[in-house]
Design brief:
This protein has 291 residues and is an alpha+beta fold. The chain has helices at residues 32-50, 102-110, 144-160, 187-204, 269-276, and strands spanning 3-5, 10-12, 15-17, 23-25, 30-31, 55-59, 69-71, 83-89, 92-98, 113-118, 131-138, 166-169, 175-180, 209-210, 222-225, 251-253.
Length: 291
């Protein structure tokens, strides 16, 4: 991939990145150009996570300390490779946006996007999710070691049900445990299955876990958020930058690395690019939920 630097723009794969020197995070002095170059470098790994999926974009045009907002509908200025996806749900018609390639990715980054939140299904089979996600969201007073234990707990329970899972640092407060699916079950069945796992954990250890949306009940506990397994719900993409101080990255890690993790936001862009250098993308094995 040819990378050319010019004043005042940065050009990546034919896409002009304006104001590349704009600081988007004072912590670490992270610039818009560095974010764009990161996404260009990590394209082979992030595209399988986001391509041909409805996306919610967290845009921070003036940086993460300025005004940030979510956008999921196509609009003017996002670029020719940012495409509309129209679908009907419960009698209403909606139009979301999606991308297919590196140009589409860089066009949305040019428009100040920091975070990418895809659906758990592609536009080609929108009613059939290809992943089931458990988001472990700890209360502020819960230590990260407890979150790590919770991830192992979910993993073991899934294994007893015959399901293999993947681990991801969210770049925020918690961890994601994800089960790749073969797109055989519709959203309600996948959500109900995830709920059964979460509720099983709460019943076994009610002092540690909660599976309700009510924030009043989460103090001192880990919220097992299975509600991301729902039609129109999203989750932070693997390899996405986060709009947090220092611009950490949501990074998939091997289960063997869990014990040594110090924080769910310990991985930064440069480190991730170096980590993935020379590696090849590998599609996860798809699974069918047991019935």
């Amino acid at each position: 991939m040819a990378v050319k630097t010019s004043k005042p723009n940065l050009t990546l794969s034919g896409i002009a990145i304006t104001h590349p020197d704009r600081v988007i995070s004072e912590t670490g002095h992270v610039t818009k150009g560095q974010v764009a170059e990161y996404y260009a470098n990590i394209t082979p790994f992030i595209l399988p996570e986001i391509a041909r999926r409805p996306l919610s974009l967290l845009r921070c045009p003036s940086g993460i300390d300025g005004e940030c907002f979510f956008q999921r509908n196509p609009g003017k200025g996002l670029g020719a490779d940012v495409k509309p996806f129209e679908f009907r749900h419960k009698g209403k018609t909606y139009e979301y946006l999606y991308i297919e390639d590196e140009k589409g990715l860089l066009e949305i980054i040019q428009m100040g996007t920091i975070e990418l939140h895809p659906w758990g299904a592609t536009i080609d089979a929108i009613d059939y999710p290809d992943r089931m996600i458990f988001d472990l969201d700890p209360a502020p007073d819960v230590p990260f070691e407890a979150v790590k234990s919770g991830a192992q707990d979910i993993r073991r329970r899934l294994e007893r049900r015959g399901l293999k899972s993947l681990l991801k640092c969210t770049g925020g407060k918690g961890l994601h445990v994800t089960v790749p699916l073969a797109q055989k079950d519709e959203w309600p069945a996948v959500k109900a299955y995830a709920a059964s796992v979460a509720e099983e954990m709460v019943a076994a250890t009610p002092e540690a876990y909660v599976a309700t949306m009510s924030k009043a009940k989460r103090g001192g506990k880990i919220f097992i958020d299975y509600f991301r397994n729902d039609y129109t719900a999203t989750a932070i993409a693997a390899y996405s930058v986060r709009a947090r101080p220092g611009a950490p990255v949501a990074l998939p890690v091997d289960w063997s690395e869990l014990e040594g993790l110090k924080s769910p936001s310990e991985f930064l862009m440069k480190e991730v690019v170096e980590r993935m250098s020379g590696k090849r993308t590998k599609a996860p094995s798809k699974q069918t939920l047991p019935h």
